[in-house]
Amino acid sequence: MIVSLVEDYPNYMIINLDKLDYCASLKNLETISNKHNYKFIQGDICDSHFVKLLFETEKIDIVLHFAAQTHVDLSFVRAFEFTYVNVYGTHVLVSAAHEARVEKFIYVSTDEVYGGSLDKEFDESSPKQPTNPYASSKAAAECFVQSYWEQYKFPVVITRSSNVYGPHQYPEKVIPKFISLLQHNRKCCIHGTGLQTRNFLYATDVVEAFLTVLKKGKPGEIYNIGTNFEMSVLQLAKELIQLIKETNSESEMENWVDYVDDRPTNDMRYPMKSEKIHGLGWRPKVPWKEGIKKTIEWYRENFHNWKNAEKALEPFPVQPPFV
């Protein structure tokens, strides 16, 4: 998102506020780090004094709020941390943005706030029924953001997107994790049966969706950013094995799969309707075959953008209780 804004909108000054947590890497931004319209500031959205000072010293017109703890597996064992960062941090940021009279505040949420569904498609008015600590923290944060519209008519917009994949994603997430495991001659670890399905959107398509919401999204509204492309985790593993290990043999493919204990809860599907954002002129464009090919190539060259990338490939112990 930052690279696109900096390169395509030279008249915009883009300020990148990032804590530089374990999953961040400034190497992902090397192509634009010296541009005149880009500025990096290291800081934490949970630091209310710092955030207030930032809005006082920088002329900020628009906020795109991506900052969050997002790894579902981790949320089961660090639930309080997810609540603190995702709920309290969001409240700090939206409060400071409101005080600074920001023109538009876009909160990046997730399809997971709806909970799972086998058949019913969710639209923006569907109830929030999150089933894991990550999704619960995002749903709670949405309530705080929405309250600033209800109470003050502060121009907030909420987006809920399907799973995003592509270059620059820390390899703890399923697609870069499977790619990197296979490229390091290690097995794909699959939770439970692997029959749970996910909808995957390529990163540049999601960037276009955010730009659409930035320009045309109406204050106080929620927009689903979804795709009809859906694949089970097991099928994903098999496709990646075919592409990286160059085999079509079922028995050979099974050699590259390792089934591990399932998460305490693992929603089977997140089917969403996206007609509302289609009405603003956005639809996904990048076909799966093209997107996954680019992604595989990128990780072959850039896996070590993160100093701790190897750690992301370790199997994660997911056990209750939520602490």
Short description:
This protein is of the alpha/beta class. It has helices at residues 2-8, 48-57, 72-77, 79-99, 133-152, 174-183, 203-216, 233-245, 250-254, 275-278, 288-302, 309-312, and strands spanning 14-18, 38-42, 62-65, 104-110, 156-161, 163-165, 188-191, 197-202, 222-225, 230-232, 257-260.
Using the CA coordinates, give the radius of gyration.
Answer: 20 Å
User: What structural class should be given to the helix and strand makeup?
Assistant: alpha/beta
Q: How much helical structure, as a percent, in the residues?
A: 25-40%
Strand order of the largest sheet: 3-4-5-9
Beta-strand fraction estimate? 15-25%
What do the pLDDT scores average to?
94
- Strand count, sense and closure of the main sheet? 4 strands, parallel
Alpha carbon gap, first and last residue: 33 Å
Gross morphology is globular
What is the count of DSSP helices, taking H or I runs of 4+ residues?
Answer: 12
> How many DSSP E strands?
11
Low-confidence stretches: 318-323
Q: What's the order of the H and E elements?
A: HEEHEHHEHEEHEEHEEHHEHHH
Cofactor: NAD(+)
Protein name: dTDP-D-glucose 4,6-dehydratase isoform X3
Domain NAD(P)-binding: 7-295
Keywords: Lyase, NAD
Task: Explain what you see.
This protein has 323 residues and is α/β, with parallel strands linked by helices. It has helices at 2-8, 48-57, 72-77, 79-99, 133-152, 174-183, 203-216, 233-245, 250-254, 275-278, 288-302, 309-312; strands spanning 14-18, 38-42, 62-65, 104-110, 156-161, 163-165, 188-191, 197-202, 222-225, 230-232, 257-260. The strands form four sheets. It has a four-stranded parallel β-sheet, sandwiched between helices. Strands 6-8-10 form a three-stranded mixed β-sheet. It has a two-stranded parallel sheet with strand order 1-2. Its cofactor is NAD(+). It holds the Pfam family GDP_Man_Dehyd.
